[in-house]
Amino acid sequence: MTDPSPNIPWYKAYTGSTPQGRVLHLPHSITPSTNTHQLGDGREQSLLTHVRNLSPTTPSSVATAIDSFGFFNQYLMTIGPRKATLLTSLITSRKPKIMLELGGYIGYSAVVLGAAVKAADGEKYISIESNEVFASIAREMVRMAGLDGFVEVQVGRSDFLLRELAASASFASGEGLDFLFIDHYKPAYLHDLMLAEEIGLVREGTWVVADNVGHPGAPEYKAYVLCSVEEKRRKVQRGQREANPNARNWYLREGERGVEAEEESVVGRPELEYDTECLEAFEPDGYHHIDEVSWLRFQKMRQCLDILYKELIGICVGDETMTLIGY
User: Fold this and answer.
1) Using an 8 Å Cβ cutoff, are 115 and 85 in contact?
2) What is the enclosing helix (H) or strand (E) of 327?
3) What's the pLDDT at 195?
4) Could you give phi then psi for residue 151, rounded to 5 degrees?
5) DSSP letter (8 states) at residue 55
6) pLDDT digits (tens, 9 = 90+) for 215-261
7) Which of these, 254, 273, 263, 282, lies nearest to 326 by C-alpha position?
8) Number of C-alpha atoms within 13 angstroms, CB side, residue 316?
9) Residues β-bridged to residue 242
10) Greatest alpha-carbon span in the chain
11) What local confidence, expressed as pLDDT, does residue 117 receive?
12) Residue 124 to residue 237: CA distance in whole angstroms
């Protein structure tokens, strides 16, 4: 299998929340398709041209334009209208002042959910995206939707930006986030949630929604939010910490030296208890099941990728770092 766009982590699509609040999981499925890749092959730029040609001026018209491209041209890894309806209803009921999403992609969720936060008298919607190309497209979608100034798209590593956000004036009072939506690099789900706990962004009363935690999903994340406070405390006492997968992913994807040494582990706040609810929702194209053949194929692909990662890291940064950031 050859990746036509080596700078885009296409594999992240298949790799595999809060105290006194709720954590909702919207599981992922692998869609039957003739396309080997679901992102980073030029479809995002084609999407932008498509949307611009339609000249949308509102959040709903931008979302409709994106949906039409995904339905009739090329599949897009967005939350789609069905999941968007679930999320906007939560936003309407919870009325968050500040909402953060990890994994903005081309801005679909930033437009739809950002508009919902604004309509609920919120103050700001922040979208973090690791890829500069996707982030620039997302900003243009936000602009066309008339949400620039309310929706802020940040580009970079999620762990770095989470720390910057916690230290910013927006959170100087220590209130933390009202709503966190996680939909980025699947192996980073757990680490970034625990980091958000440690730095005070996730606290008692925060709502966290995590997409795509089914199969292949994010099993470690799911196990954590279902774990009891007592078990989490025992793990901390045994010295268990959650390693940071962001450094490896960023290094392999961006080819930058130095960041791979930024290996950080976290313990979170084990005293926080999660009231967890799992929901099943359709993908944008209407499918929601993964067949056994696809699942076995994924497992084999993941094993091959793990071997490749370890070989690359061993060659590039030495065996010691390989031990730190390998599986």
Assistant:
1) no
2) none
3) 95
4) -95, 125
5) -
6) 667 888 888 998 899 989 988 888 777 666 665 554 444 434 344 43
7) 263
8) 18
9) 266
10) 58
11) 99
12) 38
Bridging pattern class, strands 276-278 and 23-26: parallel
pLDDT at 104 over 70: yes
- Retrieve residue 264's tokens: 């950080």
Say if CB 285 and CB 31 are below 8 A apart. yes
Structure-block tokens of residue 151: 């929706």
Q: What residue segments make up the domains of the chain, in order of their start?
A: 17-290, 291-327
Average pLDDT (49-71) is: 96
Looking at residue 123, what DSSP letter applies? S
* Euclidean distance between CA atoms 80 and 31, whole angstroms: 13
Q: Is the pTM of this model over 0.85?
A: no
Residues 6+ away with beta carbon under 8 Å from 162? 128, 192, 195, 196, 199, 201
Report H helices in 25-152.
43-54, 59-72, 80-94, 108-119, 132-144
**Which residue matches tokens 């092959």?**
41
CATH of domain 17-290: 3.40.50.150
* Interior angle at CA 38, CA 188 and CA 135, nearest 5: 60
pLDDT single digits (tens) 2-48: 333 334 333 333 332 333 344 443 433 333 333 435 788 899 999 99
Structure tokens at 72: 């009739």
Helices H / strands E in the chain, number of each: 12, 7
Contact predicate 302/309, CB 8 Å: no
pLDDT of residue 219: 86
Phi/psi class of residue 287: alpha, beta or left (left: φ > 0; alpha: ψ in -120 to 50)?
Answer: beta
Q: How far is it, in rounded angstroms, from Cα 202 to Cα 129?
A: 19
- Rounded to 10 degrees, the C-alpha dihedral 140/106/193/227 comes to 150
Q: What is the residue-averaged pLDDT of the chain? A: 77
Strand arrangement, sheet containing 98-102: 151-155, 124-129, 98-102, 179-182, 207-211, 23-26, 276-278
